[in-house]
């Protein structure tokens, strides 16, 4: 993978691989832009995360299971959703490929300040790759599921 850091820094890493004849993907984060040649390494469902994804699918939280019952089999306006899908090194709760929509359910763990910082950085990276992220607290799944489903529909293009 070709990887350069632009902006206020110097080149972080440059592989010895020959550059291909297409424009690299640029990601902007804080005051730096990153150029990534994504054709050299797929960003979806990397093999080393497969066991982790399977384990997460088997051990859904009650909020994830409830929402999944309304998303699976194209029940929500004919859109196909995947659960526990990986993008880069991240595993997202639900993903709709047609809409490039990521749905993240946040429990109490995500209310911690340190986790909120990690979530923010992750969201920035995924947003810069062109994904839309819909984040909702678990409690809304149980308190007002229609509100959640309407929020997801509002993200459709």
From TrEMBL:
InterPro entries: DUF559, Endonuclease_DUF559_bact, Restrct_endonuc-II-like. Pfam families: DUF559. One of its GO terms (molecular function) is endonuclease activity. It comes from the Bacteria. Residues 50-154 form the DUF559 domain. Keywords: Endonuclease, Hydrolase, Nuclease. PANTHER family: BLL0828 PROTEIN. This is Very-short-patch-repair endonuclease. It comes from Olleya namhaensis.
